[in-house]
Fold this protein.
Amino acid sequence: MKRRLFIDALSFASPGVAALVCALTAACAAQRGAPLQPRDSLLTGVNNEAAPQETWLYRPLHPAALLARIAVDAERTLYVGRSGERWLSDSSQRSDTPASALAPEGLIAAAAQGDKGWAFIGESGSVYLSDAPLGPWTSVRQSTEALVQVTAAADSLVAVGRQGQLWQSPDLGLSWGKVGPAGVRFADVAMTSAGSAIALSVPEQSWLSGDYGKSWQLQPIAARGLLGVAARDGTILARGVLGRYAWRAAAQGGDFQSATNEQFAPLSLPFKKPRGPSARALQSRHALVVLGRYFELSREAVDGDKRSGWKLYSGLVAGELGETPVPSLAQCSDVALTASEDILYLACARESGRGKGNSLVNIDLLAGGASGEQWKSLGVTISGKLGQLQWVAGANGALAFSGACPASKPDCASAGIYFVERAGQSHKPTLRVSGAPSLEGSAAALIASADGRRIYALGRRTKSDVLGLFVSQNGGRTFDAREVDGLPVRAISASSLGTEQAGVAADGTITVSFAALTGTRARLAVFDEQGRLMAL
């Protein structure tokens, strides 16, 4: 079986788990030292021979700054960017497709190598090789010199070293040699695809090369307080204290002339970027995964209106998401989602904010169909802080929550667990207090089993100084307590026990991660479907 996972900025989410179990962080740029080695998957190096094959899909909410574009053919253009990303823009398909494998540093250029594939040049001067414009990395050539400014064209690389020397590689980083005049300290360099290059030295002087950086000639032009140079679409651009300039070649050398705003406009992808699942949205409960389908509510500008509204992004986890405005949620200042197999539930905070400080907000509970585009009030309003609300949906319409009170009792201490009792289609649902003996305060997390027939609550026990896992087999009406031996409450941070750190696997096992307090270790607990501790 092949599963697909999504890269969202620096976070990652798996479609096989409805709750976010862990957050991974990776550095996109590394300091010089150990060689920078690209990975086809973040799972590389993990001994998981029996694990299913993973396919990574890059779906950033906003692409990083794009640093260069290279024509592949008449219809396709390749873009490379600051996060080590690659995009292939196809005018015939009107699409922008990202590569799933990122380089561990920003990419500044790319060059086709015929039947040898493609070479991508990193900001450090390292060269990353691939068989195709968006293919996985096949190898990397680590720069042997300490370089701070790098430019490239065809097979030639030109760079400024840390000591201010000019370096040139005629063979895409296989070998390097010093070029340029001795005794001159250089600060920046840029080269066009035709091999014309400009280097800036300190004090300000401009040096010109017309042979891909092999030889350099001083240009007798006036100083302009230039801060740096860059190549864009066959032109060398410069930023200075007094303005922005573009190099104009002449029969003998050339000079900098005033540049247009268009020449300095940031590069951008021409077509609509594919949007995929967001780990950040899953963690904030603005999104969830149900039976392989992803649903996300995002507050943003709708149809060019300056005022924001809610949009629904939905679709198969492994595919591109469609978007639909949801005007019926216009009065919601914030939302949180949960779901059973066939019903989506929405907590809609009517006042601004998620209940900051000691202020409480009214939260309406709504239900939606499988599409998530239409929502109907359950006729239940609670009072609390949306950020502290824990709630879960189970089988047969079961719905339980903790961390809030019925709106009719706004002064309650938000303790205990409540369930929504439905007495039939003709009766309004009512809130009932669940039987959860020995639960102190509110539950720190609520989780449903894979089939929705069991509801689990994590929280402190009143009878002992340990964590309790409470199990309900009747839709949240009553809970039986299980002590978690070996995990005293004082050893964990209660504020860290959110649903984003707990999940249920397909085999019914429950995994919960606990952040550590000062002087203690982080913990990972695994329970069976009966709520018994299996591993800690």
Observations:
- Confidence is low (pLDDT under 50) at residues 1-36, 39-52, 493-500.
- The radius of gyration is 29 Å.
- The helical segments are 279-284.
